[in-house]
Amino acid sequence: MEKKLTRRESRETAFLTAFAATFEPEEPTVPAEEHAAPDAFANQLLAAINDHAAELDEIITAHLKGWTLSRVPRVSLVALRLALAEMLYGDEQKPGVAINEAVELVKKYGAEDDYQFVNGLLGAVARERGETPESQC
User: Fold this and answer.
1) Burial annotation 77-101 (CB, 10 A radius, 16+ → b, else e)
2) CA distance 43 to 123
3) Distances (CA, A) of 22 to 7, 26, 81, 100, 116
4) Quick check: 65 and 57 in contact, CB under 8 A?
5) In whole angstroms, what is the distance from residue 56 CA to residue 33 CA?
6) Which residue in 9, 26, 29, 15 sits closest to 80, CA to CA?
7) Nearest to 106 by CA among 134, 69, 76, 78
8) For 8-38, what is each residue's pLDDT tens digit?
9) CB proximity list for 29: less than 8 A, separation 6 or greater
10) What pTM was computed for the model?
């Protein structure tokens, strides 16, 4: 019997799969054997990222001040896409959770201070949508 993944593990699996797909978009796979295969929640997030890629990138681009999308570190970009997909198209509609999880992923896989950028951009999107990310956690 397969172990059921926690939401955090599902997000991380989706993140790693989406990150791997940035290198070989034709065949996204989970990059390491120690990570579980995507479950229903991870697949939902991956589908939202794929189905709404252009819209997610437009939202990110609109919030970049003095930057272009190509300058955003790959880890941060994938975390932003994942969190926005969950915030905009997820069933739970808990932006604070999505933001927190994205920050934790960037802390784990990204450069030292990149998480601050991710937190700020996602917080700005949440506030524009009339959501208060702090109260959602």
Assistant:
1) bbbbbbbbbbbbbbeeebbbbbbbb
2) 25
3) 23, 9, 12, 23, 22
4) no
5) 29
6) 15
7) 76
8) 999 999 999 999 998 876 655 444 445 556 7
9) 17, 20
10) 0.86
Contact at 8 Å (CB) between 85 and 49? Answer: yes
Among 72, 100, 73, 88, smallest CA distance to 128 is for 88
Interaxial angle between packed helices 7-21 and 40-51, expressed in degrees from 0 to 180 and rounded to the nearest 10: 40
Map tokens 């198209």 to a residue: 89
Sign of CA dihedral 56, 137, 18, 50: negative
Confidence of residue 74 (pLDDT cuts 50, 70, 90): very high
Cβ-contact 109, 78 below 8 angstroms: no
Phi, psi of 6 (to 5 degrees): -75, 165
For residue 115, the Cα-to-chain-centroid distance in whole angstroms is: 12
Taking the C-alpha atoms of residue 31 and residue 95, their distance in angstroms, rounded to an integer, is 27
DSSP SS3 for 47? helix
For residue 16, what are its two tokens? 């790693």
